[in-house]
Amino acid sequence: MLLHGLGATGEVWKDVVAGWHGSWLVPDLPGHGRSAPIERYSFGSLAAAVATVIPREPVTIVGHSLGGVVGLALASGWFGVDVTRCIGVGIKVQWSDEELQKAAALAAKPGKVFATREEAVERASKMAGVPLEHAVSEVDGGWTPSLDMRAFGVGRPDMPGLIMASKAQVVLAAGENDPMSPQEHLKELVPEPVVFPGTGHNVHVESPSSLSPLLVQEAT
């Protein structure tokens, strides 16, 4: 299972699954893309929603950023999912109070409506930090990013607690040049984080093949 980050949609994994010969599932997180919004955004509520579409069989989860935290929550076993391996890519593990305040301010803003689909796509892509094509919806008066802005208020993850609660093997990884997930932060949580050379925050988009060794390792 592949879980995207905040503001994105499952489409960001298209080049990863193109080279994968096993079975896979790529949902849109609640309040993103084609998935309906939920009443309250927390890592637990997101995990509970995702759990409803996961087959009741052993599964590996690869999650980017927010999706990685949701994957760790699922790996706890609290949601009835048998996660054998959880790979978190580009998770931001340290948050300042100022960053949390900015995120809360974004969560309180209404979504913008644009006159054209192209403008809405541009806005959606900017918020996600990656190019998107299917992350907008038509509304009265024009087009809007389909992201529920309230999702920005998800908060700070308790990474030590999530890792401790995990029943799965946990792998933390990030691009060599990822400013949101620097290696020194990851090393405080796991002894040997995986580093993807020459990449930034969105490894799965910048260099999809970089993830292949981790997936092959699981398959073997």
Short characterization:
This is Alpha/beta hydrolase. By secondary structure, the protein is an alpha/beta fold.
Structure description:
By secondary structure, this protein is of the alpha/beta class. It has a single domain (2-95, 149-219), classed as Rossmann fold, CATH 3.40.50. 31% of the residues lie in helices and 15% in strands. The protein contains 9 helices and 7 strands, in the order βααβαβααββαβαβαα. The protein has helices spanning 14-17, 43-51, 66-75, 97-107, 117-128, 159-165, 183-186, 203-206, 212-219; strands spanning 2-3, 59-64, 83-89, 136-139, 142-145, 169-175, 194-196. The strands form 2 sheets. Strands 1-2-3-6-7 form a 5-stranded parallel β-sheet, with helices on one face. Strands 4-5 form a two-stranded antiparallel sheet. β2 (59-64), α3 (66-75) and β3 (83-89) form a beta-alpha-beta unit. α2 packs across α3 and α3 (66-75) packs parallel to α6 (159-165). The model has no long low-confidence stretch (mean pLDDT 95).
Rounded radius of gyration (Å): 17 Å
**CATH architecture title:** 3-Layer(aba) Sandwich
Q: What is the makeup of the main sheet?
A: 5 strands, parallel
What is the CATH class? Alpha Beta
Number of strands: 7
Number of domains: 1
Estimate percent helicity. Answer: 25-40%
Strand content: 15-25%
Distance between the termini: 17 Å
CATH topology descriptor: Rossmann fold
- CATH homologous superfamily (4th level) name: Alpha/Beta hydrolase fold, catalytic domain
Q: Are there runs of 5+ residues with pLDDT below 50, and where? A: none
Strand order of the largest sheet: 1-2-3-6-7
Helix and strand composition category:
alpha/beta
The helix/strand series, from N terminus to C terminus, equals: EHHEHEHHEEHEHEHH
How many alpha or pi helices?
9
Keywords: Hydrolase
Protein name: Alpha/beta hydrolase
Domain AB hydrolase-1: 2-208
GO molecular function, one term: hydrolase activity
